[in-house]
Amino acid sequence: MSEYDQVMKLALERGFYFPSCEIYSDALAGFWDYGPLGQRMKNKFIDLWRRELIRRDGMWEIDGSQVMSKKVFIASGHLGNFTDPIIKCTKCNSTFRADRYVSEKLGEYIPERASNDEIDAVIRKNSLTCPKCDGDFGRTTRFNMMFKVEVGPSADEAYLRPETCQTIFVDFSRIFKVMRGKLPIGIAQIGKSFRNEIAPRQSLLRLREFYQAEIEIFCNPDKLDEVPMYDEVKSTKLNIHEDVSSHEITAQEALGKGLLPNQLIAYYLALLSQFYSKTGIDMKRTRFRKLSETEKAFYATVAFDFEVETSLGWLELVACNYRSDYDLSGHMATSKENLEVVDPSTQAKVLPHVFELSMGIDRSLYAILEHSYYEDYKHDDRIVLRLKPYLAPITVGVLPLMNKDGIGIKGREVYAAIRKDFDVYSDESGSIGRRYRRLEEIGVPFAITIDKTTMVDETVTIRNRDTMEQERIKISEIKNVLEKAINPYE
RNA sequence: GCGACGGUCGUCCAGUUUGGUCUAGGACAUCAGAUUGCCAAUCUGGUAACCCGGGUUCAAAUCCCGGCCGUCGCACCA
């Protein structure tokens, strides 16, 4: 069984995540629900993101609407020119990218922006037919990955956002004013995005409705090498992928060698790398890969993907795109609002450029689970999810060794004393070994056991999930010990 | 979206070839009780499933058709 299958099984069995609407037969692919444990873990992941990126860098976080007006996507380029031309065989219903198929077949370049009529004309002129069944093609249509929604009784056309960042772009002007902004300014958002994938697959890895954590850095394009906090992170090690191999190099060296174009990008890639190193992902199995011209999204001028190696191959977790002024100039032209701001040092008006860190939360959580999954063959093949204590959905289990001589009651007292401060799980049933195994499997880093000695001297044992070692501490110390243990800087 | 293969308790599997004895069985997990008392112990009992819809038939988990889902390949992932 592959590691993907093992994680999938654990997720289903223990309720980290599972298919949405699963009791109905018309449930659709590409929609998944987080169960109690997955939701907790996601919240803690987001807490860490806020701590290591948002607060550290002094960014602002917003929360925007998921339904956005049509003009937003005219301006952003998601509607109009950037839909894929599709042809369908009338006989076998196979679907093809019209421009690519025609180009390949005829050996002549057909621009993606060719109109439907132009493509149809080429197909008719050359009598092109379906490569599978030789059937005739229907007319060229446009496939767009966005979900269209009809709003109100007049069914006004709107869309579910395909990336959260458009909210940030359209809100930029107000945020900059009311927060007394100065460039560079980071604006971030966590939320749902929606893409109508043709073939969603592999649970959390290709969803139709998914979480993004996006950071948009608005900057003066003339000052990309003047980043005040750059010195703090310049010796951070980054795995940079060149040609066919990756190697570890400091941000400073990468900048010096021209692998990274400027200080601003070096700074944020370093921050991102520091963040992920705290998630429990094995950083030796990660890389920053610069995308080629053909791989980049339409809005990006320079793009690096932060990728992680999993049992399914390399997986993109974060798209780091230099979007230049593509978005703001688009919204400026479409909305007729002036989105320029004044740079106080020069008193000149500038239309900010944008560098973004667009993180897939669901994929990140999957990668953390897979990299944390461990089968301990030295101890009964126990399954251990070696999550960082501050990401574990449950921090500590409280386990009375037996339920007599007042030990069970004492256990409930200990539980009650710490339940408001930590995510605590109380378990009184089954053998102690079985209870330890249950906790390890869902990544609970600590287990407190109440035994006969507790009744004499008010001490308990606290057991470490990974080492299986126990330490005896006073009940009054539990809170301090746990607080120290779940500190991300510990 | 196309093609191939598949879908049975929470999980894994038996049963489908050759329709009936399946009132659907097992293992693990789970719950209750007993026993034990620091690393998945034992015993007893319980909960729990044929993906959905239609068809064929005296009779469908089993055969046929459609849908949905899953895996893989192609395409797609702006």
Topology:
Layout: H1 3-14, E1 17-19, E2 32-34, H2 36-57, E3 60-62, E4 67-69, H3 70-76, E5 84-88, E6 95-97, H4 98-106, H5 116-125, E7 141-143, E8 148-151, E9 156-160, H6 165-178, E10 185-194, E11 209-219, H7 230-233, E12 237-242, E13 245-250, H8 251-256, H9 263-277, E14 286-290, E15 302-310, E16 313-324, H10 326-335, E17 341-343, E18 348-350, E19 353-360, H11 361-372, E20 373-376, E21 382-385, E22 396-400, H12 407-418, E23 424-426, H13 432-441, E24 446-450, H14 452-457, E25 459-464, E26 470-474, H15 478-485
Parallel strand pairs: 3-10, 12-14, 22-23, 22-24
Antiparallel strand pairs: 1-2, 4-9, 5-6, 5-7, 8-9, 10-11, 11-19, 12-13, 14-15, 15-16, 16-19, 17-18, 20-21, 24-25, 25-26
Helix pairs in contact: 2-9, 3-10
The chain binds one RNA strand of 78 nucleotides through residues 9, 12-15, 19, 22, 24-29, 77-78, 82-84, 86, 88-89, 92-97, 100, 132, 143-146, 162, 195, 197-199, 201-202, 206, 297-299, 379-382, 399, 401-402, 404, 429-438, 449, 451-452, 461, 463, 468, 470.
